[in-house]
Amino acid sequence: MWIQQNPSSPAPLADLQGRAVGLKFECQQCNTEVFTDLIGVPAPNDQADSPEHADNHEIEEIKCPGCDMTHQLEVDSTFDGVTFKVSDAKTVSYQVAE
Fold first, then answer.
1. Secondary structure of residue 13 in the 3-state scheme
2. How far apart are CA 29 and CA 66, in angstroms?
3. Which of 12, 46, 55, 71 has the fewest Cβ atoms surrounding its Cβ within 10 A?
4. Distance in angstroms (rounded) separating the CA atoms of residues 58 and 41
């Protein structure tokens, strides 16, 4: 089941930490629906000296099969939750791997 990312509210960390997710998004340039390979969700840094420094990121790139535009994918994991960011995408949805 695909879950649309709410930009103002991160996804629950407890549901995603240590799991792999697939992302899908619509390319802003050519409107092609793009599906990613599975991406690991990193755990926040529990050794950080403050919550502001606990952020952990996973960054990858993917080319749109419709127009060859390169999109940057970023998974931001904090104790408040997980946010998925994709450059030049209209909307972003995620699905947890079984």
1. helix
2. 9
3. 46
4. 7
d(CA 96, CA 42): 14
Pairing of strands 3-4, 20-27: unpaired
Q: How many CB atoms lie within 10 A of CB 62?
A: 18
Q: List, edge to edge, every strand of the sheet that includes 70-78.
A: 56-63, 70-78, 81-86
3-state SS of 31-98 is CCEEECCCEECCCCCCCCCCHHHCCEEEEEEEECCCCCCEEEEEEEEECCEEEEEECCEEEEEEEECC
Between CA 60 and CA 63 the distance in angstroms is 11
Output the pTM of the full model: 0.83
pLDDT in tens, 57-97: 678 999 999 999 999 998 888 888 899 999 999 889 999 99
- Dihedral, CA atoms, 76, 39, 60, 3, nearest 10 degrees? -60
